[in-house]
Each structure stands twice: as structure tokens, then as C-alpha cells.
Amino acid sequence: MSGYNSPSRSDVHVNAPLSNISLAFVQGEEGFVADKVFSNIPVSKQADAYFTYDRGEWNRDDMEERQPGTESAGGTYEVANTTYYAKVYALHKDVADQVRSNADDPINLDAEATRYITNKALIQRERKWATTFFAGSVWTYEVDGAATATAAASFDPTNASNNDKVYWNDASSTPIEDVREGKRYVGEATGFRPNVMVMGREVFDTLVDHPDIVGRLDRGQTAGAAKANKDALAALFEVDEVLVMDAIYNSAEQGQTAVHAFIGGKHALLAYRPASPGLLTPAAGYTFSWTGYLGMSDMGMRTLRFRMESIRSDRVEIEQAYDQKLISADLGYFFDGIVQ
Question: Secondary structure of the chain: what % helix, strand, coil (to 5)?
């Protein structure tokens, strides 16, 4: 076609230096938790199936006494399967020739564009995670923050009408006992106790000042102030890790007054995360990241730089392809709106 030049293979390619900048930026962003809570599963295909197992099949006692010269009792379990589909998301930032020519260090423009679009990718990924996992009516076990708790005799975390717990910013609340109770419910139902806890920034700030928590940390201390942090909370709650959702999101349209809020809100989640994912390994959730798409990292991300001659600009673009999947709703215990 006259007047049209197709990009050459050298014009459109995954840019390794910019991808490294993007990866470093991702790894340094402590406020984002979407890729820390649950294991990441690199997958070569955009869509595929994975096996699921009925937990009840694994928790019965099927052993029988063996008489001399007889076969052992036999056991079996049913295998089902479900699917994932790693959607592709993308965003670009153009660096105009006129801007590049006027910059003191033109190389920095590409790095800045990469950080910009990577931050946007992380926000999108975090919001997707919050919608998938950090919301009401997702997990089998859920409690609601309230001014008055449901009476112990009627309390049922599987029943929205009888699942209230006192807001944790109320001095009369019992967050340590509430967490222990949540772990007990999940452990009894599944055989696996939650080992990771995620919470919004407001929940964390409330807990580190809660009198019960400060009192536990202060006992036996002879010098200095009792200090609550993520490690201290993890020790008190007997989980491997406490993660705090510090990422923010501006919900206003471009040109409007910014409306910033923490993505994590006022919630908390107890969940089971295996040390490493596996075919027969139970988990609350997984992220399937499509690595088979040319140039994708283990997180299913890639950064490209190519020429847009029609607008006299270089385009820096990021793509990410992933699917965040709820694996077992029974392996999570959600505290919905647990602070005011």
C-alpha cells in the first residue's frame, strides 16, 4: 500500500532493559500484595484446565484391620477439573520526538514512561485481586464488623445474619481471639490452618494500637516502648506472614478532582497459602500468569518499545496476562468492614 510502512522486526520487540526496569519497580513496591498473598503459577498456555479435589475424600478414616493373607482396604478419590483464562491487559505511554529532543537526558524519558505504565499495571492487578479475593460473599467463612457482636451461642460465620464481631477499633473488641477463632473454623473444616493474613492499612493501624495487642507485647518488657509491627502481629496471630495493602487508587476521571482511597479498604483476610504450589497441594487461591506469550516474565508481564512514525513518537507499552483464581473458598476467612 502506497505511503504505508509496516514496522520491521527490529522496530517492534520486547525491550529487555525496559523490562528489567519494570521488574525492579514491581519488586520494590511493598504496598502491592496481589502477587504475594497467593502463589504465582507460570503457564505456557493462555487457557487450560487444572484438577480439583473434594477435601472430604481426603479427610475420612478408611483404614481397616488387615487379616493374615488378605488384601489391604482400598481407597480412592474423585478428581474434577476447572479452567483458567489469562486475559491480556495493556497500556502505553508515548514519548514525543520534540520532548525527547528537549530533555537533558533522553534515556530517562523511557525509564520514566516504563515506571508510569508499570505502576498502572500494578494498580490494575491489585484492584483485580481485591475484587476477586478481598470482598464479601467470596469465602465460605465471613464475619462483619459491628457495634455489637453476635451472641456466642448464635454465632455462625457461614450465616450473614449471625456473624457480627465488634469493630476492632473498639477497645472492648477481641481481635486476637477473633483471628484464633477464624483459624479454628477453617482448620476444622479443611485440615489446614490459615497461615497468611492480609489487611487494609486502616485495619493494620488500628491493630498496632489495640490495647490487647500492646498489652501482649508489653508483658515482661523491662525497657523501651512496646512496638507492634507486621512481624509482631504475625507472631501474635500465629501466621507466617502479615501483609498490609498500602496501594491507593484514584477513582476520579482525568481532569477531575482526585479521589484517592486505599484499595484494601477496611477489611482483613485469613487464608491458607502452601509453601510451594503443586498438583495435589490445596490452596485458597492461585494466580495463573501466561508466560508462553512471547517475552513474558514469570509474572506474565512484558515491556515493549516501538516507533510510531505517524505521530513522531516512541511508544513504550506494557502487557500483562494473568488470571487470579479462587481455588478453595473453604480455605479463607474474611473480616468484612472490621474497623469503622
Answer: 30, 25, 45
Q: Which three cell numbers stand for residue 292?
A: 508462553
Distance, in Å, from the CA atom of 196 to the CA atom of 238, rounded to the nearest integer, reads: 9
How far from chain centre, in Å, is Cα 174?
26
172-185 pLDDT, tens digit each:
999 999 999 999 99
Q: pLDDT at position 30, please?
A: 77
Q: What angle do CA 146, 38, 91 make, to 5 degrees?
A: 100
Q: What is the DSSP string of 52-75?
A: EE-HHHHHS----PPPTT-PPPP-
Render 123-161 in DSSP notation, one character per residue.
HHHHHHHHHHHSSTTSSSEEEEEESSPPPTTT--TT-TT
Q: Is the dihedral of CA 142, 144, 148, 154 positive or negative?
A: negative
Q: Are 183 and 194 in contact (CB under 8 A)?
A: yes
Instruction: Please answer whether residues 52 and 290 qualify as being in contact, where contact means their C-beta atoms are separated by less than 8 angstroms.
Output: no
Distance CA 199, CA 243 (A): 6
Q: Is residue 6 classed exposed, middle or buried when 0-12, 13-18 and 19+ CB atoms within 10 A define those classes?
A: exposed
Q: How many residues does the chain have?
A: 340
- pLDDT for position 63: 87
Report phi then psi at 234, rounded to 5. -60, -40
Domains of the chain: 13-58+78-336 (3.90.1690.10)
Torsion of CA 130, 132, 136, 137, to 10 degrees: 180
CB–CB of 176/213 below 8 Å?
yes
- Neighbour count for residue 70 (Cβ, 10 Å): 9
Residues of the chain with pLDDT under 50: 1-12, 222
What is the pLDDT at residue 46? 96
Give the chain's radius of gyration (CA, Å): 25
